[in-house]
Task: inverse folding
C-alpha cells in the first residue's frame, strides 16, 4: 500500500510517501515540502498548497492520504492556516477518490515510539530507523509527514479483537491498541460500531 503523509501548514506543508508491504515492512519513497509565499494573499497561498499537493498525489498515486489532524494551539492564525492547508489535502485526495485518514500527533508518537509524549528528536530517529534511512529526515515538516504516513501504516485497527492479529504487532503497536481500547471502554464506546 502506498501512503502519502501530509503535515499541513500554510507556509510549509510536509509531504512524505512510503510503501507499506507484507508484514508491515515499510519502504521510503519520497519526502518534500510544498511551500507558499507568505507575502501572497491567503487565497493564492492556499492555491499554491493545493496545486503542490495535487501534483504529489498525481505523481505517486497513493492508496491513502494520511493527514495530521489539526489540534488547538495558542496562535489562532497558525491553527487557521494549518486547518485550511489540511482541507486542501483532503480536497485533492477526495477529487481523486483516494481515502483520507486523520491522525493526531499523539497517535503518531504512540504508533512509532510507544510514547504519546515522545520528543521531536526521538520521533525523527525512529522514523529514520523504521525507513532504514542513513540520516534523519529534514526539514521537520517533512519528517512529520513521514511520521503521519508511518502512523497510518502501523495503526493497530482492530488489533485486540483477535489473538492472531495481536501476535503480529510490535510492542509499541500493542501498547497503543491497549491504550485506545481502555479509552474506548472508559467512554462506553464499543469497537466495530
Result:
Amino acid at each position: 500500500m502506498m501512503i502519502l503523509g501530509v503535515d499541513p501548514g500554510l507556509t510549509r506543508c510536509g509531504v512524505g510517501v512510503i510503501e507499506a508491504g507484507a508484514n508491515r515492512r515499510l519502504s521510503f519513497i519520497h519526502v518534500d515540502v510544498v511551500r507558499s509565499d507568505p507575502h501572497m494573499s491567503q487565497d493564492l497561498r492556499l492555491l499554491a498548497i493545493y496545486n503542490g499537493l495535487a501534483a504529489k498525489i498525481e505523481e505517486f498515486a497513493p492508496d491513502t492520504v494520511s493527514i495530521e489532524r489539526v489540534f488547538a494551539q495558542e496562535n489562532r492564525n497558525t491553527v487557521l492556516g494549518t486547518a485550511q492547508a489540511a482541507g486542501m489535502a483532503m480536497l485533492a485526495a477526495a477529487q481523486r477518490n483516494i481515502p483520507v485518514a486523520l491522525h493526531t500527533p499523539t497517535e503518531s508518537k504512540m504508533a512509532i515510539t510507544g510514547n504519546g509524549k515522545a520528543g521531536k528528536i526521538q520521533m525523527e530517529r525512529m522514523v529514520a530507523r523504521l525507513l532504514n534511512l542513513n540520516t534523519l529526515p529534514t526539514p521537520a515538516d517533512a519528517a512529520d509527514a513521514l511520521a503521519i504516513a508511518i502512523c497510518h501504516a502501523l495503526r493497530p485497527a482492530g488489533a485486540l479483537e483477535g489473538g492472531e492479529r495481536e501476535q503480529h504487532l510490535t510492542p509499541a503497536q500493542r501498547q497503543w491498541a491497549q491504550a485506545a481500547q481502555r479509552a474506548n471502554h472508559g467512554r462506553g464506546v464499543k469497537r466495530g460500531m
